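ESCALATION

Customer reports they have been waiting on this structure for their group meeting. Please prioritize. Original submission:
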Amino acid sequence: MASAKLPSDLAFAVAAAVYPLLRHILTGSKPSLGRLVAVNKATSAVHSSLTTILAAYFLYRYRIQHQGAPPASAKESLIARQGAAAEVSRYPDDSHNPAIQTRSSLGNIITAFECGYLLQDIFALLWEARLRSHMVGSNNDQTLLRMILSHADKTLLTHHVGIGIALLVLQHYIHGGRERGIHIIVQLVLMNSSTPLLNLRWWLRTYHPGMRLLCLASDLAFATAFYLARIRLVEWVVRDYGRAHGRDSAWKTYWEDMRLPCQLGTGALYIANAGWWSILVSGIMQRLVRDLRWS
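Update from on-call: job pushed to the front of the queue and completed.
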């Protein structure tokens, strides 16, 4: 068991150690805030591109391995629903659903690598907050919580802490040989595919604000990528889960097949991403109107 989990442990260690080493090489021991932020953005773009490629390869292999295996039919799902136990009668049987039961050393490696990156990036974000507090002349003796509330990117930090803890819990299950849903988790890693465009957009607006057409193009490209990678992707994941039970609709799968905790988590993710996308598009439209007025 220990040897089987060694690759994922190694992936976690590599991400947790190599990224900080590269950051130190590129910034030095006493970087400026601007330098540190730029290197962190570049690291984020590289990591998200790498994990997107790995996740796409994993899903390609998964599709090849399962394309000849017919999914559970609607009749089998109906039989499962009609069992004597209330749980069986209410929900479909996932004991043969590949979206839940598939195990993969590559999938475990991807999740461990992502976990290691997120945990080390939390410290990078706190370092940014510390430098930012020094720039505005804050008291060096202020508590960590006060520094975070005053100077950290709280949205990104909350994201990293939440996802990082969840992936740490997953690593515990992987070590016990009890992991489930690796296929779905790797599908969600594809959300990283929009991050390089996010960082490109930041780079253009920070260093080349006068290039309005390129800034607008990056806005539209990121808004499109965000919609596909963080909203439509959730629908795809739910629909992919439902296919094993004879479903073709993500919405029917969500309302009729998914258990309440899964409904709450999936719904919260979908609503949060849709909300952020709405704010993003609203901001783009406001800037576009403002630029047109000034031109």
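Sent to customer with the following note: The chain has a mean pLDDT of 87.
Escalation resolved.
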